[in-house]
């Protein structure tokens, strides 16, 4: 698979995953948080009326209409469902509340004293784990966080709802846009790294050693030497199938050689081996085998470190085979 296509696929996966998270999950959380802040900005009487109005959709009607003490900011209301069952509603107004099992027990006790079958606690605050466990055992329904916002959202005026939803949507779009830009950058970077890795890096040993003479220099040297016979015709370049057979022969031969393992041709010009002995021993064995195949003699050799070793991967190359000596004069 081309490296650019891999980068495109990675960018698409990252971008779609970020879009799903920030639009389907995080946007709802942001909307709930903004909605709770909007509710907290109301007066406690308005908040209580919103909750009462939302419970009317369930068929719960307020039974007691006695004047309320304005100093009491945590009123309780006795509701009825029309079938003889009573419900005690308690509203704790404010985002600073951290309600535990004690407050739940107090509400359950008050509900029993007033003849209610169960209680409902509504708050913009948070009910901890102990409080929720106590509420399940004490027949108390908890309305907080997302459940409270979903309950009172239809009762709010359209301007407030549009403002809260618009803020959450705008924040989600900004985050999604930034994530797509980051996903594209990651895709480009990954495709670039894969392209560089696919290319053959220059061999360190080849650059350090003396370069082999150019073909023109070889021809000039050969023509300057006295020759006793006509030079042999140039050897024909082997086909791809023949080169593949030679590589297979080299791999089979090195598989039985000590000091290394897993000889594998990872490309047409690169032979990878796992080093189990010293580098000198391994290079001597590999170069001796490659020397039997002139077309593979200058192949790049990738030396993989032994398992558990902290050494890094190294690349080497065998030295060019020496030119044949000229025949002696008779």
Q: What do you see in this structure?
A:
Pfam families: Mrr_cat. By secondary structure, the protein is of the alpha/beta class. It has two domains: 3-164, 3-Layer(aba) Sandwich (Trna Endonuclease, Chain: A, domain 1), CATH 3.40.1350.10; 240-323. Helix content is 50%, strand content 15%. It has helices spanning 3-40, 44-56, 101-113, 129-137, 145-152, 158-198, 204-208, 215-224, 240-255, 279-290, and strands at 61-62, 76-80, 86-92, 98-99, 118-123, 126-127, 140-143, 260-267, 270-275, 300-304, 314-317. The strands form three sheets. The chain has a five-stranded mixed β-sheet, sandwiched between helices. Strand 9 (270-275), helix 10 (279-290) and strand 10 form a beta-alpha-beta unit. Helix 1 packs antiparallel against helix 6 (158-198). 23% of the residues are buried. The model is unreliable at 67-73 and 220-229 (pLDDT under 50).
Topology:
Elements: H1 3-40, H2 44-56, E1 61-62, E2 76-80, E3 86-92, E4 98-99, H3 101-113, E5 118-123, E6 126-127, H4 129-137, E7 140-143, H5 145-152, H6 158-198, H7 204-208, H8 215-224, H9 240-255, E8 260-267, E9 270-275, H10 279-290, E10 300-304, E11 314-317
Parallel strand pairs: 3-5, 4-6, 5-7, 9-10
Antiparallel strand pairs: 1-2, 2-3, 8-9, 10-11
């Amino acid at each position: 698979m081309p490296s650019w296509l891999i980068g495109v696929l990675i960018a698409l996966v990252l971008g779609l995953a970020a879009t799903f998270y920030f639009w389907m999950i995080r946007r709802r959380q942001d909307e709930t948080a903004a909605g709770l802040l909007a509710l907290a900005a109301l007066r406690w009487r308005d908040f209580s009326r919103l909750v009462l109005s939302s419970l009317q959709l369930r068929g719960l009607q307020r039974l007691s209409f006695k004047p309320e003490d304005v100093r009491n900011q945590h009123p309780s209301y006795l509701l009825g469902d029309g079938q003889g069952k009573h419900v005690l509603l308690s509203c704790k107004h404010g985002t600073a509340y951290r309600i535990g099992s004690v407050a739940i027990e107090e509400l359950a006790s008050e509900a029993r004293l007033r003849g209610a079958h169960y209680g409902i606690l509504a708050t913009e605050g948070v009910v901890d784990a102990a409080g929720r466990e106590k509420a399940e055992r004490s027949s108390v329904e908890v309305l907080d966080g997302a459940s409270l916002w979903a309950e009172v959202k239809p009762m709010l005026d359209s301007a407030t709802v549009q403002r809260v939803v618009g803020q959450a949507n705008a924040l989600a779009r900004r985050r999604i846009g930034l994530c797509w830009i980051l996903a594209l950058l990651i895709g480009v970077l990954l495709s670039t790294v894969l392209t560089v890795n696919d290319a053959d890096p220059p061999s360190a040993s080849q650059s350090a050693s003396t370069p082999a003479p150019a073909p023109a220099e070889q021809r000039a040297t050969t023509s300057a030497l006295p020759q006793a016979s006509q030079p042999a015709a140039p050897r024909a370049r082997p086909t791809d199938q023949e080169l593949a057979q030679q590589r297979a022969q080299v791999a089979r031969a090195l598989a039985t050689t000590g000091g290394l393992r897993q000889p594998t041709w990872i490309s047409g010009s690169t032979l990878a081996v796992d080093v189990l002995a010293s580098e000198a021993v391994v290079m001597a064995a590999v170069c001796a085998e490659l020397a039997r195949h002139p077309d593979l003699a200058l192949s790049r050799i990738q030396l993989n470190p032994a398992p558990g070793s902290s050494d890094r991967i190294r690349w080497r190359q065998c030295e060019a085979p020496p030119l044949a000596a000229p025949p002696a004069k008779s």
